[in-house]
């Protein structure tokens, strides 16, 4: 009753491979781009009308189609709510995590926005995978690591101080030693944000352990770039 059935049928047929050959080679990409708007119009109670189409697009052979969905999956999660997101979007999100860098960057840019919508137990599963974002198909793709550091600053609020110490601390330390200065700079802010997290939660022992680790790793580093990093961390703090 929300939109005419012929119009919906026409939209759903955009994933038909024959349409790509006869109408527009990028018709599936246009379909993927419009999907969050169609989902919002139909409402979550009618998600079943779009579910199969979404799954078809998510496995499309063209990476540009998958990339389009990866950039908007956090918006779709808001529209669908936590239950449908956990059931229908999380498996696709997990697939995007293992995709090409061109697709993964879409997930990474809105990682915080997606994770904050998940229940705490489901969100915790991603703690063990966050360091995988530091590995890219091309090591020269430094913007990927920059984006990871930027997202981690936001993500800190989603996890308790013990999880931050056990899982996110070592990622931050690795990024601080990156070959690209822009990545190191944003990572210094991440280091300070982690320290602030510890002391805001009265986890003084963890904070002190982390400071001692920074002293050993950077302050007493045999290379000048390490000692410079320590000075910059102090400056940011």
UniProtKB/TrEMBL annotation:
Lineage: Eukaryota, Metazoa, Chordata, Craniata, Vertebrata
Gene name of the record: Ppp4r1_3
Gene Ontology MF annotations: protein phosphatase regulator activity
Protein name as annotated: PP4R1 phosphatase
Alphabetized UniProt keyword annotations: Repeat
GO cellular component labels: cytoplasm
InterPro entries: ARM-like (IPR011989), ARM-type_fold (IPR016024), PP2A_Regulatory_Subunit_A (IPR051023)
PANTHER family: SERINE/THREONINE-PROTEIN PHOSPHATASE PP2A 65 KDA REGULATORY SUBUNIT (PTHR10648), WW-BINDING DOMAIN-CONTAINING PROTEIN-RELATED (PTHR10648:SF7)
Highest taxon listed in the record's lineage: Eukaryota
